[in-house]
Amino acid sequence: MSGANRIPGAGRLTPAKTARFFFDGKSYAALEGDTVASALLANGVHLVGRSFKYHRPRGIVSAGAEEPNALIGVERDAARKQPNVRATVQDVFDGMKVISQNRWPSLAFDVGAVNNILAPFFAAGFYYKTFMWPKQAWKHVYEPQIRAAAGLGVSPTEDDTDHYSSRYAHCDVLVIGAGVAGLSAALAAAKTGARVIICDEQPEVGGALHYDKSVTIDGQDGFTWAQATAAKLARMENVKVLPRTTAFGYYAQNFVGLNERVTEHLAKPDRKLPRERLWQVRAKRVIIATGAIERHMVFANNDRPGIMLASAARTFLNHFGVAVGKKVGVYTANDSAYEAAFDLKRAGVTIAAIVDSREQPGEGVLTEARSLGIEVLTGHGVVDTGGKLRISSMSVARNGGGAARKIAIDALLMSAGWTPSVHMFSQSRGKVAYDNETQRFLPGTYAQDCLSVGACNGTNDLQATIEESLAAGELMSNASGFTASEKLALQGANAFAWTGGMAGAAEGAGPDTTVKAFIDFQNDVCAKDIRLAVREGMHSIEHIKRFTTNGMATDQGKLSNIHGLAIAAETLGREIPKVGLTTFRAPYTPVTFGTLINHSRGDLFDPTRKTPMHALEEAQGAVFEDVGQWKRAWYYPRAGEDMHQAVNRECKTVRDVAGIFDASTLGKIEVVGPDAAQFLNLIYTNSWDTLKAGRCRYGIMLREDGFVYDDGVVGRMAEDRFHVTTTTGGAARVMNHMEDYLQTEFPHLNVWLTSATEQWAVIAVQGPKAREIIAPLVEGIDLSNEAFPHMSVREGRICGVPTRLFRMSFTGELGFEVNVPADFGPAIWEAIRAEAEPLGACTYGTETMHVLRAEKGYIIVGQDTDGTVTPDDASLGWAVGKKKPDFVGIRGLRRPDLVADGRKQLVGLLTKDPTVVLEEGAQIVADPNQALPMTMIGHVTSAYWSENCGRSIALALVAGGKAKIGQTLYVPMPDKTIAVEVSDMVFFDKEGGRING
Amino acid sequence: MADLANRTLPLSGFHGGSGAASLSVAAPATRISLRAKPDAVSALSGALGLSLPTKPKTSASANGRHALWLGPDEWLVIDENEADLMAAVALSGVLHSATDISHRNTAILVKGRGADVAVNGGCPQDLSLTAFPVGACSRTVLAKAEIVLLRTAEDAFRVECWRSFAPYVSALLNEAAEDAGN
C-alpha cells in the first residue's frame, strides 16, 4: 500500500508501480507518477516546512507551480543537492532523499518558532526601523543574524556534477501550456502544416483536466482526450511536444525561454543526458494558454498544515488517488470549491461543511450539494482555525459577527476564485486591463505577435475556450503563412459553470492588527501588514510591495498579488486599477543557474585562444599568462629558477645574444585597395603617402576625442596593400573602429579590411645575433643593413615556407619578425630555435618583452595610457602629422584642455635607492609631509627591475612631468615613502644605435 | 615548399560527436576573403570558375570550390583542392581585395540526422531546410565564438572558425552533438 490515504480505484496512477523515498530520514512508499506532495499526503504527512520569518508550521497549499509553502531539499548525493524545490512539481523517484527546510533541530520542534511569539517586533518593514543603531552593527551583527534566522534551503557546497544543455529552436507557432486551450490551439495550428512547439510545465499534458473529471471532449474523458491529442501531435513531423518544460521568460520579438527538466524525475538518470535543457525559441507567433491559478481565502490563521486550495485537493484525489483528509471543511467565495467537495464526498470523505462567504452561490452547485447531503453555510466565514502541526478545527460565524461555531476537521479547502495567469502576456510587455465585472486583470493591449486563449484570457466556459483556441491556432498559423484545408471542431462538456470570486481579506481577517491572515505564505505577509504599509504612507503598490515584501518570494506572489492589491485598494479607498499592478518579471518559476549557463562551464566558460606554437612552448616549460582570451608565454623558467631569475636571464640574453619570442597574438589587419594609403592617413595621426612599398612605419590612432586609442607598426606590402599590426588586446576593437569609420565616414574610399591576425604565426627574433640566427634559413631576401634596413618588410621564404619578414624591434635591438602561415609556425619556431640555441640565445616571454621595451621607453597602450593620454602626453608628438588636413581625432587634439599646461605626461622615474622597484599604480606626490589627504600629481604606470641597467626603472604619468625632469618626487607607500627622480623615458642605449646593428 | 609533414594543423586528427551527429576536422583548404563591388562580380566569377552569389545566405560551389556570400561586398572562397585562389582572382583584372586566410580558418564537419540539432546547441539560426537549405551559409555565432556556417547536405554542415577558436567550437559541438542523441 502506498500510503493510508490512497483511495482504491481513485486517481490515474498504477498501484503496482511503487517507489520508496525518504523524508527527513523516514522511509515512505509512493507510486510512480507521484509528486513529493501527493506521496506525502498519501502517507498522511501535511507538515512539510517552516515559514520564512515566523517559522510557523506549513503544509502543502497547491498541487502545482504556484506552491508557496512546500519547499523542500532534494538530494541525490553530496554534490547534487537542490534546495527550495516545490514538492508539488517534483516527481518522486525510487530512493529519493527529501529534506525539510528552515527548521532546527527538527520540523516538528523548531526553536526558530519563537519568532512567531516575537512577531510584534517583526512587523512589516521592521528591518528598516529596528536595527538602525549602532550603525556598524547592521553589517556585522544584525544582518548576519537575520539572514541565519530567516531563509529557506541551503545551497550545496560542492561543484554540480550534472550537466546542462542548450538548444535554439524556431517555429511558426509556439503554444505555452497544454491544457484544453493549448492542445486545441496546437491541434488547429498543426493541421495547417505550420511548425508548432507546444510546451507544458507538467509531466503530462492536460492542465485543469488533471482535477476536473467531469469534462468530456467529443464524448471522450477529458484527460484521456488530452493524452491522445498530445500523442497525435507528437507523431506529426511539424510538431514538437515538450512536457516538463516551463516557459519562464518572454523576451523581445517573440523570443521565449523554456526550461526542460530532462532527468529530474528519474531514479538513475543516464549520465549522458543533461539534467535540464534550456530552449531558446524564436516563434513567429505565440499562443499563450497558461490557464488560471486559484486564490486562497484570507482569514485568521489560514496557514495551518491541512489548509489548501480546493483545486489542489481535487487534483490529489482525481489524479493521484489521495484523500487529503477524512473530515474536510470548505471555505469559499467561488463555485469551483463545491466540485472538490462533491468529488471527495463521492470518494467516501466526510465533508464537515461548505462555508461560503456569499449569500448566493451558483444554483447548480447548491442543488448538487443538497442532494449529496452536504451542509452549506452561505453568508458565513471561517474566522479562525485550530490545531498545531495540522489543522484540527475551523470556527465559523455569520458574516458581520455573531457567535462562532467550532467544527472539527482535519483539512480545509479554500477558494477565493481564479486569477488568470497573465505572466507571459505581461512579460511580453502587453498591458493588462482590469475587468470590473469579474474583478480580474486580463490581457488588454498586445505588444507582440501573440494571443491569449482560455482561462488566462478570462474565458471560463469550456466550449468557448475550445472554440477560441481552435480559432487562435488557425489565425496564428495563417499569419505565419499557413492555411488549413478544413475547419476543426471539438465538442466539450463539463458539469458546472462557475460563478463568484473575491479578492482581498475575507471575514475574520481583521481589521485588528494582530490577526495573522496570510496573503503571502512564502514571505509571511499578512493582511495587517498591507494595512500598516498604507498607514505608514505607502500609496503606490510598488512601495507597498517592497515595504511588506509581498510577492517578492520565489513564487513571486502567484497567490498573493491580487489579495495584496485589493487590501491596499480598500485601505486607500481607491479602485483596484487606480492602485495599479506590479510588473510580472522573468522567470515565471525559478530556473537553475545550471540551465542558464548550460554548456558554458569549465573549459567552455569562455574560448581559450592558443597560438600555433603553444604546445611547443608548453613542452619547453613556459609559464603562461592570460591576455584577454589568449594564453601567452609569460616566461620560460629553467631548473631552479624563479620568475625573477628567469626574467633577468632572458632580458640579459636578448641584449647580449638574442631571444626568440612568440608574437602571434598581435592583431593584424590587411588593408587593401587603391585608397588604402588615403584611408590610413585618416585613421592614423601620421602620414602614409610617403611610405614606400617594402617599408614600415609606427602609427598611432586616436579616438574622436584626441586620446590615444591604439598603436602598432604598419608595413606597406604594395602600393595598394598594407599589413597593419595592433596591440593584442586591441585587435578586435581596432578592426571595428576602422570598419565603423570606413562604412560611415569614408564610404567613398576604395579600400577593404580583413582580419589576418590568425593567418600568421609571428616569431620575433631580437638581439645582436638575430641576423646570424635567421640568415641560414631565409631564401630570397638580402638581410644586410643596406638592403634591409630597420623598419622594412620583405616577402620571401624561410625553410621553404612563404614569409613576410619584418625588420623591426620592440626591444631596441636589431630585430626581425618572421610571419609565416600559421600551420607552419611550429616547424619554423623549431628551426629558428635550432639555429639560436647553439649561439647562446633563448626563448623569452611577455614579461621580458615588457621589461625590454620599458628600458627603451616604448609605451604599451592600455598600460602606460588609460584613455586620457594624448600623443604629446606620451612624448609621441613626433608621430602626429603637423601638415595633415584631417585624421580621426584632429579636432579633439585642439581642445583647450588637451593643449593646456600641466597635463599629465609620461616620464621616467628612477628611485633614489636603485634596488627598490616601485609598484605599478602607486600614487605620486610632490611633498611627502603635506597634510592628508595629499595632492596626488600622478601615478606609476610601469615598473620593473632592469637587469641590463642594474637598477629599477619605471614609467609614470605625472602632471607637468616633462618640466619636472631632474626633480625629486615621492611615492608614499603603506610602510615607507620612496623618493624618486624624474627622468626621460629611455633607460638603456639612449643613443639608439643598437637597433641598426 | 615545406611539405605537409611540417604543417601543424589545428585539431589534427579530431573526431567526435555522437550517433546522431558525428564531428570531424576538414582537410586543409585554401581560402580567401574576397571583397569587391557589384560591377566586379562577373569578372571575378569568371576568374574563379563559379558564379559569386549575390543573395544573402547563399553560396555557389563547383569542383570543390565554394564561394559563400558573407555581405554585400564580401565572400569567403574555399578551395578544397588547395588551388591558388590569390593567383586566380589576380587575373580578374577588376578592382577587388583578396586576402589569403587559408591558415586563419579551420573547419569542423558536422554530419548525421542530428547535425542541425547539434549546431543549434549554440547557434541561434533557423536551420530548418526551408530557412537554411542545402547551400545556405551565414556568418553567425556558436555560443561565444564567431563561425561561418555552410550547409553541405541535408544532414551535413561545414563550420568554419578562426583557428584559435577551434578547440572551443569543437568541444561545444561535441557536447551539443551528445545532446542530439545516439
Automatic annotation (TrEMBL), chain A:
Keyword Oxidoreductase attributed? yes
Q: Does the keyword Oxidoreductase apply?
A: yes
Give the EC number: 1.5.3.1
Domain (SoxA A3) spans 516-596
The chain positions of domain FAD/NAD(P)-binding read 172-433
InterPro entries in the record, alphabetically? Answer: 2Fe-2S-bd_N, BFD-like_2Fe2S-bd_dom_sf, FAD/NAD-bd_sf, FAD/NAD-binding_dom, GcvT/YgfZ/DmdA, GcvT/YgfZ_C, GcvT_C, GCVT_N
Report keywords, A-Z: Oxidoreductase
Please list the residue ranges annotated as the Aminomethyltransferase C-terminal domain.
904-989
Enzyme type, top EC level = oxidoreductase
Task: Outline the extent of the GCVT N-terminal domain.
Answer: 613-884
Q: State the Pfam families in the record.
A: Fer2_4, GCV_T, GCV_T_C, Pyr_redox_2, SO_alpha_A3
Which superkingdom, per the lineage? Bacteria
Gene Ontology MF term list: sarcosine oxidase activity
Q: Which family does it belong to?
A: Belongs to the GcvT family.
Write the protein's name.
Sarcosine oxidase subunit alpha
UniProtKB/TrEMBL annotation, chain B:
Can you tell which superkingdom this protein's organism belongs to? Bacteria
Q: Which UniProt keywords are given for this protein, alphabetically ordered?
A: Oxidoreductase
Class of this enzyme: oxidoreductase
User: What GO MF terms are annotated?
Assistant: sarcosine oxidase activity
Q: Which SUPFAM superfamilies match?
A: Folate-binding domain
Known EC number(s)? Answer: 1.5.3.1
In Swiss-Prot or TrEMBL terms, this protein is called Sarcosine oxidase subunit gamma
Show the taxonomic lineage. Bacteria, Pseudomonadati, Pseudomonadota, Alphaproteobacteria, Hyphomicrobiales
